């Protein structure tokens, strides 16, 4: 976890560096599109498979309905409007939970119409509301 206070933009950059490092360890090639206006942060290659990945991160837990979890915005701002990522834009959302150094590799179609998701990396995968636990450390999805 980063030391000291970092703004949201810098924390996102730290998560992207962590993503590149972890992808390399997994044997997945990583390329970054030029510029900052693409819907995906990275282009991934494993064998002949190419994937577009958007990286999201969460550094601080939040307590909701008696449970502590991590809330992640999985949409993007277009002016004042929040828009969902589509399959035409990205293939996966990679969520980094910094406190636990855990990744969730989630196919964009698994998000449905959700703009925010919650993950519970310290809990059991069968807990109510732990829908995304099956995607915890699912790096194999980028390799299939």
Can you describe this structure?
The chain is mainly beta and 144 residues long. The chain has a single domain, classed as Trna Endonuclease, Chain: A, domain 1, CATH 3.40.1350. The chain is 12% helix and 36% strand. It is built from 1 helix and 10 strands. A 5-stranded mixed β-sheet has the order 1-2-3-8-9, covered by helices on one side. The protein is globular and about 45 Å long.
Brief summary:
The chain has 144 residues and is mainly beta.
Sheet having the most strands: 5 strands, mixed
Summed up, the helix count is 1
Protein structure class: mainly beta
User: Would you identify the CATH architecture?
Assistant: 3-Layer(aba) Sandwich
CATH topology: Trna Endonuclease, Chain: A, domain 1
Measured as a percent range, the helix fraction is 10-25%
| Major β-sheet strand ordering | 1-2-3-8-9
Query: What is the overall silhouette?
Result: globular
What is the average of the pLDDT values? 87
Q: Please, what is the oligomeric state?
A: single chain
Strand tally is 10
Order of helices and strands: HEEEEEEEEEE
Q: Estimate what percentage of residues fall within beta strands.
A: 35-45%
Please state the CA-atom Rg, rounded to the nearest Å.
15 Å
Question: Number of folding domains?
Answer: 1
Span between N and C termini? 30 Å
